[in-house]
Amino acid sequence: MKQTQAVEGQRQITNADVRAALESILANEMFSQSERLSGFLKYIVDEALAGRGDAIRGKTIAQDVYERVPQDSGDPENIVRVHARQLRQNLGMYYETEGKRDPVHIHLDSGGYCPRFEYVDVPTRTPTPSRKRSALTMLSVFVIGGGLGALIANTTLKQPVEVQNPDAQAASQHEQLTRQALLEKSAAALQAANFAEQARGLIFPIFERSRQELLTGVFQHIISTDPEYFGGYAGAAQTLATKAILTPKGSEREEITALAGAMAQKALTLGPTEPWVQSALAWAEVAKGDYEAAYRLSSRAKDMTSQDGHVLDFHGAISLFSGRFEEAIEAADRTNLKGRSNQRFANRNIYGAANYHLGNNEKTLEGFEAAAAFGDPLSAPSLAYQAAALQRLGRVTEANSKLAELNRAWPNAPLGIMFAGIYQNHEHVEEILAPLRELGWTSKVANDEGNATARD
């Protein structure tokens, strides 16, 4: 067996060792959900194992992985540098969590693109059952089979979330004290709060109606579990308001909007000083088309807490859809956000979309590429923004490829209805749809493009 590298003159790492390490990494969701990031890692590992590691350059990665040539507009190596940073971060996160017991580690050191392989002496231990769960699957079981869902909520959701950042200890202690107080009230109160926190983290991407319908059922179950808990009503208000936004104008939309408003008001009665409640009230106003009220309430929620990523996501979304693009970018900045490092938010998508409307097309692509690399929410509009940005940059081949990807993943996505339902100003809708039409996009949904008109 060919030896690839010696570590400390003792343990030799073979090609097979490296291949096994690579397969483990690529199976992790941080990489499996990002085709480009996985391709990047596989390419540099393959090149290193073939003895060409020292010849790996940014331009070769751009050409061989991304099919970018020097003649393309812009800097073809820019996306390589962006993905290299993301790759280093993802590898670090992987080895801090799921991969911490892998015997062989793959590193990408700063300053180059040749990977480094390291043998780690990991002591054996008695295997323990995996705690990894698909959150959406967990919620589906909860809604469809209440008894089993309750069991999952009791056994899985109460388990502590690993905290990587030392600065998060204060927030973690606050959460623990809150849970203790809820448990003293009742086990049902603690179960409802635990499950609501999990469910609210799944509201994004907001453009999936089936997701919102599922989560509405979850929050309704939470309400029945503890009718005095504000979170069930706040969450239901947000999912119902999102359903209303995705519904064409008419009586059905009006009914859903009214129900969302009622849920938000009930949440206000139970928790008037809760930032989540103020955020839910704001989102219900978006469904009504009152963006000024929505922005006022969302700003209040943001000012009440600087550490709730979900509140910041909704504030960023409201800022984006009301045309406050600079503020949307500010809300998307999580530099000072403490707390659990394994939570995912929509901020990178918001960053990419806001930069699109400011004409920063390269930053748009960087934002959405980062979102994909970190496993953030992905939706049809995410791909639409990217295709439009590529078209603006004159990278027509890539734009068509991205549009084809959109059509494969969401063949009947009503983009016109989606964007018209969420943006306050029609001109911002057209900024997205016009480049897509230049690429030959036409909606396959009746009256879709006809719905892309200014809101009442």
Helix content: 55-70%
**The top level CATH class name of the largest domain:** Mainly Alpha
Report the mean per-residue pLDDT as an integer: 81
**Beta-strand percentage range:** under 5%
- Are there runs of 5+ residues with pLDDT below 50, and where? 1-9, 126-169, 339-343, 452-456
Topology order in helix (H) and strand (E) letters = EEHHHHHEEHHHHHHHHHHHHHHHHH
The CATH topology of the largest domain? Serine Threonine Protein Phosphatase 5, Tetratricopeptide repeat
Biggest sheet, strands in spatial order?
1-2
Global geometry: globular
Transmembrane segments: 135-153
Keywords: Membrane, Transmembrane, Transmembrane helix
InterPro entries: TPR-like_helical_dom_sf
Protein name: PEP-CTERM system TPR-repeat lipoprotein
Question: What are the defining features of this structure?
Answer:
Serine Threonine Protein Phosphatase 5, Tetratricopeptide repeat; mainly alpha; 62% helix; 456 residues; globular; two-stranded antiparallel sheet; disordered C terminus
What does this 3D model show about the protein?
The protein has 22 helices and 4 strands. It folds into 2 domains: 3-119, no CATH class; 137-344, Tetratricopeptide repeat domain (Serine Threonine Protein Phosphatase 5, Tetratricopeptide repeat, Alpha Horseshoe). A hairpin with a 3-residue loop joins strand 1 (3-7) and strand 2 (11-14). Helix content is 62%, strand content 4%. The strands form 2 sheets. The chain has a two-stranded antiparallel ribbon with strand order 1-2. It has helices spanning 15-27, 29-32, 35-49, 58-64, 78-96, 135-144, 146-157, 169-185, 187-200, 209-225, 230-245, 251-270, 275-288, 291-304, 309-321, 325-332, 347-357, 361-373, 380-392, 396-409, 415-422, 426-438; strands at residues 3-7, 11-14, 104-107, 116-119. By secondary structure, the protein is mainly alpha-helical. It is globular, with a radius of gyration of 23 Å. The relative contact order is 0.07. It comes from Ruegeria atlantica. Keywords: Membrane, Transmembrane, Transmembrane helix. The chain crosses the membrane at residues 135-153.
